[in-house]
Amino acid sequence: MHFISEQRLDDNVLEREFTLGDIPGILWTPGSASASAPVPLILICPPPLGLGRMYPRLAGRARYYAAEYGFASATIELPGSGERPRWEAAEQARAELRRVVEAGEPVTDEIIDALVLPLVERTVPEWQAVMDDLLARPEIDGPVGYEGGIISIGVRLARIDPRIKAAGLFAGSFVPRVMFEEARQVTVPLHVLLQWDDEGNDRQASLDLFDAFGSEEKTLHANMGGHTGVPQFELDPGARFFARHLK
């Protein structure tokens, strides 16, 4: 991992941009983090819209976690997003999704699989590589939490990587049918957000996925409103969820 920029923000949070191979990302650590007082880590997975566009939202969450709860947070640019190389298959899948939605046609399982499964296959190993490096740093020692908007990435990572001890998920993306079986094998505590009127999401599929999770502790927070209307007040319940399970 190579750090390419560093700045101390006004809330004493250290923000560092990094690259790991060809993966760009950002790490935020509280001022209290040190080798003698290492801190837990939260992985914040963005939607595939580019870190530049998503930076205000990501940085706001990370700075809140650091300043209020003493967590480190990291995010990465997803494959095919931002400044990363173009991914033609992903672009074709997104174009096909837009076509059927604009035409009022049903979104088929084939379209969902082509859109989501390749992204899961590429992104989960990248997150694991980032964890390997960050957990080797003296100021970060885990445990690790995950939060993110592409719920299938979180399902896969929580299922296969024992370092993930809790996950905050956003039920706002299409879910391949195969992920329902993986969800039954997820046992870590879950905090799931659902926008009841999400214009691009199948509400019943989200509820079915929540029901499928094998976790003994799982909480669903449902709010009225569309995809981008998650209330600001949901930030603190999510942070307190991580505080219960990572500290």
Largest sheet: 9 strands, mixed
Q: Count the E strands.
A: 9
Structural class: alpha/beta
Calculate the terminal CA-CA distance, rounded to whole Å.
26 Å
Shape: globular
Integer-rounded radius of gyration: 17 Å
List the helices and strands in order: EEEEHEHHEHEHEHEH
Task: Classify the fold: give the CATH topology.
Answer: Rossmann fold
CATH homologous superfamily placement: Alpha/Beta hydrolase fold, catalytic domain
CATH architecture classification: 3-Layer(aba) Sandwich
- Broad CATH class: Alpha Beta
Are there runs of 5+ residues with pLDDT below 50, and where? none
**For the residues shown, what is the average pLDDT?**
94
**Into which percent range does the helicity of residues fall?**
40-55%
Q: Please give the order of strands in the largest beta sheet.
A: 1-2-3-5-4-6-7-8-9
Query: What percentage of the residues does DSSP assign to strands (E)?
Result: 15-25%
Q: How many structural domains are formed by the residues?
A: 1
| SS summary, helix count | 7
Structure notes:
With 247 residues, the protein is an alpha/beta fold. The protein has one domain: Rossmann fold. It is built from seven helices and nine strands. It has helices at residues 51-69, 88-102, 109-135, 151-160, 178-183, 203-212, 235-246; strands spanning 2-8, 14-20, 23-29, 39-45, 72-76, 140-148, 164-170, 190-195, 218-223.
